[in-house]
Each structure stands twice: as C-alpha cells, then as structure tokens.
Amino acid sequence: MNTERTPRIAIVGAGPGGLTCARILQRYGIGATVYDHETGPEARNQGGTLDLHEDNGQIALREAGLLDDFFRMARPEGQEMRQLNHAAGTIGFHHVPEAGERFKPEIDRGQLRDLLLDSLQPGTVRWGHTLRSVDGPSEGPRLLRFTDGTTVEADLVIGADGAWSKVRRLLSDATPQYTGISFLEAWFHDVDDRHPNIAALVGQGSAAAADGERGLFAQRSSGDHIRVYVIQRVPADWITAAGLTAEDTDGIRNLLLDRYRRWSPRLRRMLSHNDGLYVDRPLYALPVPHTWEHDPTVTLLGDAAHLMPPLGVGVNLAMLDACELALALAHHETIGDAVLAYEKTMLPRSADMQQALDGHAADLLSDEPHGPDGH
C-alpha cells in the first residue's frame, strides 16, 4: 500500500476472522489494532471444535504463516463422522478418515484463537473495548466511540464483530432473523471415564441423528470432552414459553426427555447425563442476499457480512474473507481501492453461499450426514 503515512486500521472483534486479518496485515508490515468487548482472552469458554477446510480456512492460515502450526495442533481423526438411526441408536453412514487425510481436520476453537493471538505483535488486541458507535465522514477519518468513554480515529474500520455487528449499521439496515431452528448446547467432561457409552457412540469425531423435527449433533473436543447440540424446530422463546428458565436444568431435561421419548435410550443419554447447565443458542441468519453500497473507510467480514446457518462454512468463510481483505490492503494503492477489490470478490461469493443455504437450517434436522459449524 502506497500511502503518505501509515494507515490507521481498526478491526472490531477478536474472533478468528479479525485475528487472521491482523496477522496477515502484520506479515506485510501493515499495522492494525483489534478491539474486543471481552475483558481478556480467558474471559469465556470459546466453544467447541471446528473443521478448517483445505479450500478456504487453510488458505488463510497458509497466508498467515501458521499452517504447519495448525497441523501440529489439529486432530485429523476428528474428521470421523457417524450418522445414527434415531430410533435404534445404530450407525448408518460412517466416514473414517484415511491416514494422512487433511481436507478438514478439527481443532478446538480456543486452540485456534490462541494460535492466532500468539502470532500477533504485543499490544495488537485491546481488550475491554465495547464499541458504542462509529462516526465520521465516509471519506474518513472514522471515529470509534467505546462505552468506557474512549475514542479512536481510524482510516479504515473492519467489522469482524459477528452476528450482532455494530459496525454493520454504518453500511446496512439488515438485522439477523430467527431461522426457526434452535440449538441447546450440553457438555460432557472426562467422557472416556465418566460417560463411556456416549464416548463409544460418538467415536473420535462427530455423530448425528435426526427425525425431521428434532436432532442431536455430538462433537468430540480435545481434553476428553464432548459437546452435544440438541437441535429443534421451535419458537426462539421455547424455554420461557414452557415456564422455564435457562438455569432450570432439571426442568429443561424433563421437557427434552419427553420430546425425544421415541428415540433410542442410547441417544437419550445425551439429554439426561450432561454436566452442568444447558446453553440456549437460537440460530439467526441475515437476509439473502446481504449487500451494501461501497464505503471506502468501512467494510465487514465473516458473520458481520453474511451470517448463515451453521452448515460447515462460517469460520472458514470468515478466515478467507480476512485473508483476501488483508492481501487487498497489501497490494493496492489506497484503502478505498483495496476495500472495493475485496468486496467485488467477497460479496458475490457470500451471496451465492447465502442463497445456497437459505432456508436450509432445517437440513440440521435431516437424517443425511451434516454438521454444524459453530458460531
């Protein structure tokens, strides 16, 4: 990038997309600061496991210079996939990865985030910065205002702040809409010793079962953990509509056992033996297609740009977006030219993917092999 002075680039959101963008920019000698509302990298559990695909997520890691490190940490055995019969609890479809298969190995979200964080220059991420608004003219500079009263000027604001992005408001009036499908997350710890039946059913990767209206998707993580997603076609407020709260574990469990009463007892253990509280995760998606008029000082990536049902593409597309945006900034004369070039590729690609997946959240309830991408 040929500029008279060093551009001030603000990335809002320290998820995989935002961190990947910062890392690749720094490899090209371009500074960027990442702002995140969390108080620190250990503020919350980062979620379960995800697979990084050879044709998108791994491309980004290669450009970040982290692909070899990723393969040392990843679990290729996690590519195992089982489709279970919901009534019998038996295995139907079963994919066992071949030795050396690297198309989409699994890695814990927390491990991926640590890999990216550790690769950044000290002080790149500013924790405890909750964005309130972004002001300033479209030609820049932009002024980021945070809830603690601090302000930051930037020549480019990159919204990597997820489904409920505040940066998106500068470009689009679109808001995520409920898909009609809801996840309820359940955790199982020390599974080989404490939950051997569930561990044997899930194997080294993932296992899924569905009956058209409800489903279960289980994923093994590192450290002898399994996460199960209870998938239902329900109103977004189904827990409160039943007179329950998210903390009423016994009440929710009894409701689920009734709803899944025709399922195999082998699978119903995933509803009745979990460790700790359930986590309610209704699924939202942006209108299709989601586009905006070009702005030379603001752009979006990942879920902020194209929130879709979790059908295996979310994190991968976010990292590919981040990679392409960073490379555009490195190879174009101005920020505006770089943003325009990036969006000319990203927006059609995401629109095609949005259209392909539009209305397909219900696929998570089919008995065909599938798997959520965790968001």
The number of distinct β-strands equals: 17
Q: How much is the average pLDDT?
A: 91
Q: Could you tell me the strand content as a percent range?
A: 15-25%
Largest sheet: 7 strands, mixed
Widest sheet: strand order?
5-4-13-14-15-12-16
Count of discrete structural domains: 2
Oligomer: single chain
**Class per helix and strand makeup:** alpha/beta
Poorly predicted runs: none
Write the CATH architecture name of the largest domain: 3-Layer(bba) Sandwich
Question: Looking at this structure, what is the CATH superfamily of the largest domain?
Answer: FAD/NAD(P)-binding domain
Give an overview of the whole structure.
Helix 1 links the parallel strand 1 (9-12) and strand 2. The protein folds into 2 domains: 9-79 and 101-175 and 286-360, FAD/NAD(P)-binding domain, CATH 3.50.50.60; 179-284, 2-Layer Sandwich (D-Amino Acid Oxidase, Chain A, domain 2). It is globular, with a radius of gyration of 21 Å. The longest helix is centred in the C-terminal third of the chain and has 23 residues, at 335-357. The chain is 31% helix and 23% strand. The two termini are 33 Å apart. It has 375 residues and is an alpha/beta fold. It has 12 helices and 17 strands.
Supply database-style keywords.
FAD/NAD(P)-binding domain; 5-stranded parallel β-sheet; 31% helix; 375 residues; alpha/beta; D-Amino Acid Oxidase, Chain A, domain 2
Give a brief outline of the structure.
With 375 residues, the protein is α/β, with parallel strands linked by helices. The chain contains twelve helices and 17 strands.
